[in-house]
Amino acid sequence: xxxxxxxxxxxxxxxxxxxxxxxxxxxxxxxxxxxxxxxxxxxxxxxxxxxxxxxxxxxxxxxxxxxxxxxxxxxxxxxxxxxxxxxxxxxxxxxxxxxxxxxxxxxxxxxxxxxxxxxxxxxxxxxxxxxxxxxxxxxxxxxxxxxxxxxxxxxxxxxxxxxxxxxxxxxxxxxxxxxxxxxxxxxxxxxxxxxxxxxxxxxxxxxxxxxxxxxxxxxxxxxxxxxxxxxxxxxxxxxxxxxxxxxxxxxxxxxxxxxxxxxxxxxxxxxxxxxxxxxxxxxxxxxxxxxxxxxxxxxxxxxxxxxxxxxxxxxxxxxxxxxxxxxxxxxxxxxxxxxxxxxxxxxxxxxxxxxxxxxxxxxxxxxxxxxxxxxxxxxxxxxxxxxxxxxxxxxxxxxxxxxxxxxxxxxxxxxxxxxxxxxxxxxxxxxxxxxxxxxxxxxxxxxxxxxxxxxxxxxxxxxxxxxxxxxxxxxxxxxxxxxxxxxxxxxxxxxxxxxxxxxxxxxxxxxxxxxxxxxxxxxxxxxxxxxxxxxxxxxxxxxxxxxxxxxxxxxxxxxxxxxxxxxxxxxxxxxxxxxxxxxxxxxxxxxxxxxxxxxxxxxxxxxxxxxxxxxxxxxxxxxxxxxxxxxxxxxxxxxxxxxxxxxxxxxxxxxxxxxxxxxxxxxxxxxxxxxxxxxxxxxxxxxxxxxxxxxxxxxxxxxxxxxxxxxxxxxxxxxxxxxxxxxxxxxxxxxxxxxxxxxxxxxxxxxxx
Length: 753
Hints:
With 753 residues, the protein is of the alpha+beta class. The chain has 18 helices and 27 strands. The strands form 6 sheets. The protein has a 7-stranded mixed sheet with strand order 3-5-1-12-9-10-11. Helix 12 packs parallel to helix 13.
């Protein structure tokens, strides 16, 4: 069962519209019949300056508008908790909202209008009059790099901000071939299909919070810390999430304001952000300027490697994306350094977006590797193979399972890499220039706290219980498969319940840690149950398994089998556990597992892309993409492939489409909807595939599973960028690669051929 391409068990309810998302819930479920359940609707008001203070806020007209029940501002909301900076992960911290007159970025939440209908709330929100005292804003990262400082910590406190091995300056100076380039990336937005939304239903002192979140426990803790009540009074319900990509790891203004309004009015309140507000209120991947220096000998082997990142942070809350972390273990070089620096800008907060760190860092590093291959006149695949390290080059520990060379070689063979033109801009198909690109992929392998409960019912069926979330990745399905395999049941006899705060706690879905952490906890819970049931049957004189060796027991086909005897699981349960049998299992988080100190544990892959570029217009089209990945043991081949090709597609978007345009006067992002902030669609990629190199990483955990949700985006952006260079001979280092950047240089290049 494990690894099979099983269809999603939640597929039928989703395609028939029966899966209920946060904004679609109604209030009746948690209120007694006598209590009114008519939902009120809230509309968030956002600031129109980037920095400064609210001088006056006049809500009198809004309060008199039809249907309005309340207007919340900093002048009338109760005191809120302050953010605890000592927490290793900010997702659990208080998130005070409209708690003062201070404005920290354009689109900062400044109020909430609550009315009987959504339309009434929208109309009244336009009647609120706000006068600001604006201060000069800082919006341009390039102009302020001299102000860069060392961050207090990278997220989670797991990695240092800077590292150094050997003597980079001396090594770089002695290198025969040198690359020293800067790569600029804009702000990127997660853009999930489902907007950030919340329904809060008060009942006595308790609040039932239907929210679109990646981490149920973090949402609960953050809400409780913000409104300063016992977390046990908060009940979070999140059975389905319509995509997240990091944007729902923490709660945002819509959730806190819905909570405040529901408590004040003692009525259910719904709040959802508009697509424009998502860009204004929810954090973005920080803009970055990355300097990559590579020094190599005549044979292409690296002597010196440096990756230095400067990125934006908001002054109100520091966030340092770990951009250079992947560089620390990807290639061998005796002299090396990495660093992260922050520049405070009056732009919205930086947050986790789609493989934070690697997605941005590999776009720069793997572009630089392609530049080095071109300078050496060496095949880019061969360059990467020559620089394969035998041990982690910075930590000096062995790799647990790497297989990057195998991914590169297998991918090159499958992709037809030998057809790649050695000389850029040398292959044409009519008016189209054809180019090939390659990049390596890697992603850290985090393993986090998770507890999963498994209950075997009296009829022998099983129920899996966890507050783990399914953000569209297939969690319901893989946990069903794993439980079925572990307990020897058909998948129809396994039911999975997720996304409620009354279930065993986990760190949810994010950072590619969800599947491995929850699966390991599930495995341990099932192991406990198997031992109990085998011992029970062996000790039961009424069982055909009486006096059999418990350690020899096998669970298969709904039966317990030992030696030559067997018995239906339902019969064992009926006699010995008529009320059912339950056990919890825990994961072993990475910081508590010595393997993570003694080995370098990560996932790897190789990305290949073929593009065509119109010689007259510089229009770029992606013909095909191929990814070959080594992510450890595969739990479900179908959902795994789906995750990987989705990531690869978003990588293409980073390179060619997703560009933010900030207004230099206000810091507002002018392309703040899906009409102008372009994300890839089906028509943008003609042929895409992802395949796996079979693996089982026994150092990562007992079941050999690692995370792959974000591996697909790692390196794919660079593969596309390198293919554009191979097609045109033009290297664009400021992303995305758009017509206005490529066309003038392309015309110059073609004029020299």
